[in-house]
Specification:
The protein is an alpha+beta fold. Helix content is 45%, strand content 15%.
Length: 336
């Protein structure tokens, strides 16, 4: 066991912070992501626990990797929910209201942010972005010589454990469910990690094949977790009120380690509320999609002007190809 793993073990014992204090699983403002701040400023703004701050101060790659994981989770959340009523509004008052409930959207946020942390730190280790870790075990010398490396999922899991604190003994009902959903994100990263290979040789031959283990892209994980969100499993109050070991066992019986769980039915997100801005003036694609997105209110058509480039390719002998800017008028559907 190296020094860093010993320190991580010590932190896991002494860490007494509450669950879910980072990125999308926190109600805190995310404006610190846009600032060119120091590691110390970032740590304070992100409200990271004191017991883990030393890692971020000693290695600037820690703060940058965590910041990247939050940005990646936000971008993925917005992308996969773009055509749905709940389109991942990230303003803190919306997030806070969602995170206080056990909605399926709450489950998605915890799982997505957890998976982003594991993926980004696993890749940062293999690429040298974080100094205190390296390639995962099993990386061959041939792979290292070619600059390829197993992504270090184990290290990513270690960082995640410090942030969400698996070791807490006393947990509220919602904390227990949130922890389960964060674990779902971790499990799916592991399950979708694949073996990649490259061939080396003359004239395209495969005289030598170099292989390594690579974590999935956030796009793939986001789409997968979104499907799991739609099919999330409801956990009733009686299961959460079980005492002792039966409490966690009851949750595992109802939902597998690959299934997201919820405790409360989600609102319809049709109207402006503390959970979202509603769907008024949202853009929809076709009649079928508009019927669902607009909540039966109908839609209106609007002609809009968009700017494009290279709408005409004009070639003149002796002169370079010109790509003039031009405008295009399109018709869009907007929810009433």
């Amino acid at each position: 066991m190296n020094i860093f793993n010993i320190v991580l073990f010590t932190v896991s014992v002494t860490f007494q912070s509450s669950y879910g204090l980072f990125g999308l699983s926190s109600h805190r403002p995310l404006n610190y992501l846009r600032k060119q701040n120091s590691s110390l400023d970032f740590i304070k703004s992100a409200n990271l626990p004191r017991s883990i701050r030393g890692f971020f101060l000693n290695d600037p790659g820690f703060a940058e990797t965590l910041k990247t994981s939050i940005k990646s989770a936000i971008a993925t959340c917005k992308l996969v929910n773009d055509n749905y009523r709940w389109n991942c509004p990230i303003k803190e008052h919306f997030r806070e209201s969602i995170l206080r409930k056990g909605f399926k959207e709450t489950a998605f946020l915890h799982a997505l942010q957890a998976s982003a942390i594991v993926i980004e730190f696993a890749k940062a280790c293999s690429s040298g972005g974080v100094a205190l870790c390296g390639c995962a075990a099993g990386t061959s010398n041939e792979s290292l010589e070619r600059g390829e490396c197993n992504d270090n999922i184990r290290f990513g899991k270690s960082v995640l454990q410090q942030l969400i604190n698996y070791s807490r003994k006393k947990k509220s009902k919602l904390q227990m469910v949130n922890e389960h959903n964060a674990r779902v994100g971790l499990h799916w990263v592991r399950k979708r990690t694949r073996r990649k290979c490259k061939c080396y040789g003359f004239s395209g031959s495969c005289e030598k094949k170099i292989c390594w283990r690579s974590t999935p892209s956030m796009g793939k994980i986001g789409s997968l977790l979104h499907k799991r969100m739609i099919r999330s499993v409801n956990v009733d109050r009686s299961t959460l009120e079980r005492k002792g070991p039966k409490r966690n066992k009851g949750l595992s019986i109802i939902a597998s380690k690959l299934s997201l769980v919820r405790t409360t039915k989600s609102p319809d997100f049709c109207s402006d509320s503390k959970y979202s801005n509603g769907t008024k003036r949202r853009r929809c694609q076709n009649d079928k999609h508009c019927k669902v997105l607009c909540c039966g209110r109908g839609y209106r058509r609007k002609r809009v002007r968009i700017e494009t480039t290279c709408c005409r390719m004009k070639k003149t002998l002796g002169f370079p190809t010109s790509c003039p800017e031009c405008a295009k008028i399109i018709t869009v559907r907007l929810c009433k």
